């Protein structure tokens, strides 16, 4: 039997799923609570891509940070189905799942499944990716960067605009975006698998618009503590001053790397050619802080 169960959790609706024989359905009412949509995920098949879904969701006011409304989720699912129908793929089935994210958040994941061979309805974007041709990034979907400060958006664009790549290098492009996000303090941020939209034909490399989504970027992590162990050749305070990040600062992975490089150069210039530092990171997701302890292995002093 294929049914829809609602309110399986207080104030939470689970999307359509199978319930087999012997599965009891509780009808006991529970008090509702106010929950917030923390993340919205998509697993799509051609010809619809994430950027088109995001634009449609913006129009109906279905975005992260809003109070959870089961009717709005149903509307969002219908919006995705309409996008497929408009593109001649009405046979695609759209489902969703709602997952609790403590303390009062929700993750909503939409899944589109095609009962047929999805390769028959491939779009130009996915065909272009599969062809392993040469591309270059001319544009970036603006919605992907909407949660960043203007100067942060500029940094991401500098990393991507003009980059030449082939279909096998998309992950490398997204790794560059993830690195930038960690430098902005979004330590837990994730970047979805991107899609490309050709902006012209008959050119080599092909100019494209890059579409992707950033999730789990609601909170900027801060440095709670940075500590060094095993330092004997220099005062610990001297080593700490080489890391341009203090407790309470927004966590910036690039500054940590720069500090480690400065410490390495100090040891090397002083004759400690085998110096190694090993970081141990503790992440507190409740208060969005990161503590780092560096274990220094100075090695022998190499004299001339």
Keywords:
single chain; 304 residues; alpha/beta; Ubiquitin-like (UB roll); 4-stranded mixed β-sheet; 7 helices; 14 strands; disordered N terminus
Explained architecture:
With 304 residues, the chain is α/β, with parallel strands linked by helices. The chain folds into three domains: 1-117, membrane protein fhac (Ubiquitin-like (UB roll)); 123-219, Ubiquitin-like (UB roll), CATH 3.10.20; 222-297, Ubiquitin-like (UB roll) (Roll). The chain has seven helices and 14 strands. Helix 4 packs antiparallel against helix 5. The radius of gyration is 24 Å and the shape is globular.
Q: List SSEs in N-to-C order.
A: EEEHHEEHEHEHEEEEEHHEE
Task: Give the number of helices.
Answer: 7
Which class of the largest domain in CATH terms? Alpha Beta
Helix content: 25-40%
How many angstroms separate the termini? 81 Å
Main sheet properties: 4 strands, mixed
Mean pLDDT: 79
Number of strands: 14
Tell me the name of the CATH homologous superfamily of the largest domain: membrane protein fhac
Rg value:
24 Å
The CATH architecture classification of the largest domain is Roll
Tally of structural domains = 3
> Rough shape?
globular
Proportion in β-strands: 25-35%
* Spatial sequence of strands, sheet with the most strands: 7-6-10-9
Q: What is the name of the CATH topology of the largest domain?
A: Ubiquitin-like (UB roll)
Spans of at least 5 consecutive residues whose pLDDT stays below 50 are: 1-29, 117-131
Which structural category fits the helices and strands? Answer: alpha/beta
